[in-house]
Amino acid sequence: MAFSSSSDNDDVLSEINITPLVDVMLVLLVAFIVTAPLLNNAVHVNLPRTVATAPADQKPAVTVSVDAKGVVYLDKRPTDLRLIGAELSALKANNPDVALNLQADEGVPYGTVAKLMAAIEHAGISKLSVLTANNG
């Protein structure tokens, strides 16, 4: 449908009215501003202050390390990755509550770390801490 201003002029009047578009955008903006604070799922809790206590009779954790070359260490002693499962099982037999700290160089392939974690799981050790560097 074309409208013309005069009968002698055959130019088509094609102006887009953007007012409804602006209205819709403003309504959406207000809706997002109102709902944005509701998207935060954190529960704010003021924790009580207590005196620091030391854990009772806690033995030091065993450290399992993998260096950049892929060499596995059990408490700073080089160990073969294929034999680590038997050594961890022996540790678990001697101390059922043994805790492990696992640290690996960032350049170590994921497969090596995954095999090491599988060996830890097969040995039945459930207390595992994965150590990382602090960026602070």
TrEMBL record:
Pfam family, one: ExbD
Subcellular location: Cell inner membrane; Cell membrane
GO CC, any one term: plasma membrane
Membrane-protein topology: Single-pass type II membrane protein
Record-level GO BP terms: protein transport
Keywords, comma-separated and alphabetical: Cell inner membrane, Cell membrane, Membrane, Protein transport, Transmembrane, Transmembrane helix, Transport
GO molecular function: transmembrane transporter activity
Keyword Cell membrane attached: yes
Transmembrane segments: 20-39
Highest rank taxon of the organism: Bacteria
Complexes and interactors: The accessory proteins ExbB and ExbD seem to form a complex with TonB.
Biological role stated in the UniProt entry: Involved in the TonB-dependent energy-dependent transport of various receptor-bound substrates.
Recorded family membership: Belongs to the ExbD/TolR family.
Listed PANTHER family: BIOPOLYMER TRANSPORT PROTEIN EXBD (PTHR30558:SF12), EXBD MEMBRANE COMPONENT OF PMF-DRIVEN MACROMOLECULE IMPORT SYSTEM (PTHR30558)
Name this polypeptide is given: Biopolymer transporter ExbD
Organism encoding this protein: Paraburkholderia polaris
